Amino acid sequence: MDLIDAHLPAPAIALIGLPGSGKSTVGPRLAERLGVPHRDVDQLLEQQQGRSITEIFATDGEAHFRELERDLTLELLAAPGVLSLGGGAPMTPAIAAALTGHQVVWLQVDPGTATSRIGSGHGRPLLAGEDPRARLERLLAERGPTYAGLATITVDTNRSSSQQVVDAVVAHLTDR
User: DSSP code of 75?
Assistant: First the structure.
């Protein structure tokens, strides 16, 4: 029996957190370690739409993007594996409700560390046009309580390599 069968009560592990927390980096490594598929909602959405998240925001607006994100996330949560969610996805009530019963890993990062990881925020429409650190501070204030309420596992990623984060998540999963 592999690790995922032995220790996970739900079919999916969802990674949540601010931009720059490591969801897209940790997700594939965690999935490989667990021997399950990895899916990144933002990447799949861009593939499906044939355009970038930035283009979707610019052309159709955030509300339309959130609808697309919601529909795809709900579909992907029905399958086993590791799922990297967009930073704002848990703020959508249908997604938050659908996360119940799944392992939800909050990759915590402080705004300063996230800023150093993502730089100017190019390609991230919610960070465009203003100081990324200030915007990340506001996003953390807005989203932090929701992330905390949904998380079944919380891992601080500030001073950790992606491998250390994977190790910490696996340790939490095997302790259950």
Answer: H
